[in-house]
Amino acid sequence: MAEAFVILTGEIQAKSPAISFMNSNKGKPLLVADEYTFKLNKATTTTKYWICTINGRAAKVHTDLTNLLMKTAGNHSHLPEKEKIEVREVREKIKQRAINETTPIPRIYDEERAKAMLSTTAIAILPSEREMNSGINKARRAIAPIIPTTQLFDIPESYSKTLNKNEFLITDKTVTRRQRILLFSTSEQLKMLFAAETIFMDGTFSTCPSMFDQVYTIHAIKYDQ
């Protein structure tokens, strides 16, 4: 009795890589696939063409206009960029928090670095807070309210409350048509002020915004400070 053997032949289909997106240091879109980064080379009415950020002629990725993967082509001529991607992700989180929050940048940097659980190599190449500060401050200033030139302006809510969302702007009063008084303090500071036996007052003109006459501060002593 003869036995029949059937052999099936065909190409083994490679698994499509999972893709994600992030921004470059200059705010340009980057595609991430298999621990490699790609930058947008061009776009047509149907397709986006992405090329490797290190060797643009080697590996390529095509997506549709909604960023769904269509195809990949070519091979990389360099090692994966796992650590660089980790650093980019941390930098982007720090930048977005700096834009959306009023939290001091050094505090944001420390918190995001601690949460990231970076590898030893990624920690070594992560820029310091001092190195990143200028660029992050620039991004924060870009979305900050325009400095007014008259006393007729609205104060955004984020500038009228503390980081804990408590009231900070306690008085906003127009005395006359051209005289406006703004008083900033927290309730805790007022309690400290009213309980102090000695207070100090100081007025300054040189650092006062041009549309106002004076910045006046009141200080209370606590713990000899």
From TrEMBL:
Pfam families: FLYWCH
Protein name in the entry: FLYWCH-type domain-containing protein
Domain FLYWCH-type: 21-78
InterPro entries in UniProt: Znf_FLYWCH (IPR007588)
TM ranges: none
Any GO molecular function: zinc ion binding
Family matches, as Gene3D superfamilies: 2.20.25.240
Keyword Secreted attributed: no
Keywords: Metal-binding, Zinc, Zinc-finger
